[in-house]
C-alpha cells in the first residue's frame, strides 16, 4: 500500500473517533469507520496529500444507532446511497413529517422519476400553495453531474433535522424545494472509477446523462429530457433563489466550499448586489464559524503557474448560473473542492444550505425587490458577447504550495501539490467582462411557424409570445449571413455555427401561425440571448437554423451564359459593376465565381439563402 494512503487512513480514523466531542444533544458518539470501507477509496494513493480536518460542523452528524441516521452517516461518511435507497429513505421521512411532500417533476429517458421534496411549514404540496403563502422559495438541486453528489447527502441530513430535530423554525419564513438527484440515470451508472480526481464517495455516478449529454451545458438549448423537466419546474414553482451543487476539477487549494454567481457587469446587477452584499457575508461567516474555509468561485489561469493569476467567470446561459443571470433568477453555483474528504464536503454543504434558508428568510423583501428590478429593467442595449480583461483589483488566494517536476510519463512538466498551505497575495484577476458585441433592443421578434422547434424551446423557457391568426405584413430588420464557420465535430449533439452578419431593413409578409415575442417582458433578456445570432448561446449558434445554409436550387452553366449576356445588355449599371469586379485578378480568373456572380443577381436565385428567419421589429 502507498504511504499516502496509509496516512490518509490513519488521519481519517483519528478524526472520526473524535467527532463525539462535537456531538449535539440529539446525537450519540460516532462509531469508528471500518477499515475495510476506507480501503474502497481506490484513487486515494494517486491524489495529492489529504490535509487533516476537523470542524464544529461535525456536531451535525448522527451515530449509526440513531433512528433517522442517513445512509451517508450510517456507512462511515464515505458512501452515498443509490437511487432506490435514497428514495426509500426519503419516502419514510416524508411519510413521517407534516412539513414534507414528494412530487415528480418528470421521468428520465430510462423511466426514473426525478423527485423533488417540497418542504414548507404548512405542508403545501403544490406550486400554488407555496406562492400563496407569500414566503420566498429556495430551490436546491444536487446531482446535475451525478458523481458530484455532496448536495444529496447534505440535503437529506438537513430535511431530517427540520422534520425531527431542532430546526423546524428554518421554514417559518421560507419554503424549500430539494431535488436530491437531478441526473438520475447517470447516478445509477455508478462505480469506484467514475471520477478519479475526486476524494469520495466510494461509488460515484457518471458526469453525463444516459444520452451522453452534459446537463450543465444544456440550460439554453434544453435538449435533454431531464433539463426540460427542470425548466418547466422553475417556471411553475417560481423559486426566488436557485442553488446548483457541484464538485470542482482543477488545482489544489485550502478552500473546501467555493461558490459563485453572475457578475456585476451581467444581466442582473441588482441580484448581484444582493448576493454580494447580503448573501455572501452571511454564508461565509456561517461556514467559517463551523470550521470550513469558504471562497469565491475562481479558477487558475494556468494550473502550473499560480503567478499568472485567477480567472473570474462570467458564464453564458448554457450553464446554471449564466442561465439564472439571463432569466433574473438568483442562481448560486457551489463548487466543493474535490480533494477534500467527502465528510468535510457534505458538512460544508449542509452549513451553506442551512444559512441560505436563514438569510433568505430574513432578507426576502430585499431579494424580491432586486429580482423585480432586474426583470423589468429592459435596457435599451444588451451585451451578448464578452471578452477577457484584467480587473483593476487583484485578489489574495488561499492556495497550496507546489513544485514542478519533469514527467517521465508525458515528457512535460507536471504539478506536485504539497500539504503546505500558501497565501498567494494580490494575484491578478482576469475576467470575461469586457463587452464585445452589444445590440439594440427590438420591440419584438417574429418567427414564422415552420420553425416550430425553436418556438417550442422558447415556450418551454416560459417566454411569452402571441400567434398571428391571419397573414400579416410587417416592416422589420433581418440578418444576412456570410462566411459561416461550422464546428468540425459535434458538441453536445450539435454542429455549432458562427457567421458574419449584416442587418437589413425589409418589408415582408408573415403567414398565419407566426409568433410575435415582445421584449418588454420579464424574460425579454433571455429571449434576446436566445434569438440574437451572435449571442454566445443563441439557438442559431447551437445549429437550430443550420438548414438555411443548404442550397437546394441551382442553375447550369449553359443557362447562365445567355442569362448573363441579357442582364448585361439590359442593365448598364450592372455591366459597370461587373467590370469593376473583374479588376480583382482572383475573381477574373475564376470562371465559376464569375458565373455565380450573375446567378446571385438574377431573379432565379434563392432569396432566403443564408438569411435569418427571425425578424427584429421596432414597433
From TrEMBL:
Q: Which GO terms describe its biological process?
A: proteolysis
One GO location term (cellular component): extracellular space
Cofactor dependency: Zn(2+)
Keywords for the protein's UniProt record, in alphabetical order: Carboxypeptidase, Hydrolase, Protease, Signal
For the keyword Signal, the answer is: yes
> InterPro entries given for it?
Peptidase_M14
Q: What is this protein called?
A: Carboxypeptidase
Taxonomic lineage: Bacteria, Pseudomonadati, Pseudomonadota, Gammaproteobacteria, Alteromonadales
